[in-house]
Amino acid sequence: MTIQTGSGSAGRNPFEEALRQLVDEIHAGRLPAGTRLPPERELSEQLSIGRTTLRAVIRALQQAGYIQTQRGRSGGSVVVWEPRGDRAAPTALTDEMKTRLFDMLKFRSVLEPGSAGLAASRQLTEQESQALQDRLHAVASSGSDFRRADCNLHSYIADLSECHALVEAIANVQLILNESLLRVVPVMGPALEHSNEQHEMIVEAILKGDPDRARQVMSDHVEATAELVRGFLS
User: Fold this and answer.
1) Cα-flanking dihedrals φ and ψ of residue 36, to 5°?
2) Most buried one in 99, 109, 113, 122, CB count within 10 A?
3) Is the Cβ–Cβ distance between 209 and 160 less than 8 Å?
4) Could you give the CA distance from residue 199 to residue 196 in angstroms, rounded to a whole number?
5) Contact 24, 227 (CB under 8 A)
6) pLDDT 10s digit of each residue in the chain, 234 long?
7) Minimal CA–CA distance to 225: which of 159, 147, 155?
8) Which residues have a Cβ under 8 Å from the Cβ of 227 and sit 6 or more positions away?
9) Nearest Cα to Cα of residue 114 among 226, 221, 218, 222
């Protein structure tokens, strides 16, 4: 069995790209329930990723209810997700909720790069700079509390924009996204590492007063989240 892989996107995180490809294969019915995934070495070669990354992808698929893995000589990973019945989706989102989620992701792609750019355009006080760095460090060390810490960081960047309408809009988007993302995307180590790397670049650009860089990195960051969500719900 060969996994159909696309060309991918330049700069995309290998973990997220491999996860998206496998979820796409399952949703498209090319990996129906009962299908045993290829051995680790073969699958890692097909996806062009290392074995460590592949193991993280397999764990993420397990957490999301797509596959089950058994250990031992006769073990392996087997697809259990089905398009109908009790496993109609690994989430509890209705079509209306999915539409709203996709709409919020688009809205976020407009709002958050703008807030980062405005924050970077300001001369931050020493207290503001320290508070921003404190929130960055809180996200990096948050563990299972990542979503709350992540929301706090993004909300504070919006506060630094000093645009009240923008702050209110981002708070509303964050509320809707957090409610939905808890049902859609499990907290996954490699994805969090990639997210934290982007957080560091965003904060660095803001502290250096580089609006263009801040907008670009934030845009890449929110698009990475959107790609991951679309992968699970495609």
Assistant:
1) -90, 125
2) 113
3) no
4) 5
5) no
6) 666 655 555 456 788 788 888 988 888 888 999 999 999 999 999 999 998 889 888 887 887 778 988 776 667 899 988 875 444 444 556 788 888 889 999 999 999 999 999 999 999 999 999 999 999 999 999 887 888 899 999 999 999 999 999 999 999 998 888 777 766 676 666 778 888 999 999 999 999 999 999 999 999 999 988 887 877 776
7) 147
8) 9, 12, 16, 20
9) 218
Helix boundaries (H) for the chain = 14-27, 40-47, 51-63, 95-121, 126-140, 146-160, 164-184, 189-207, 211-233
Closest listed residue to residue 54, CA positions, set 65, 67, 114: 67
Alpha-carbon separation of residue 79 from 34, 37, 104, 150, 151 (angstroms): 5, 7, 30, 32, 33
Tokens in use for 185?
Answer: 């995307």
* Token code pair at residue 8: 């991918």
The two structure tokens encoding residue 35:
């299908």
* Number of other residues whose CB lies within 10 A of the CB of residue 15: 23
Is 216 within 8 Å of 1 (Cβ atoms)?
no
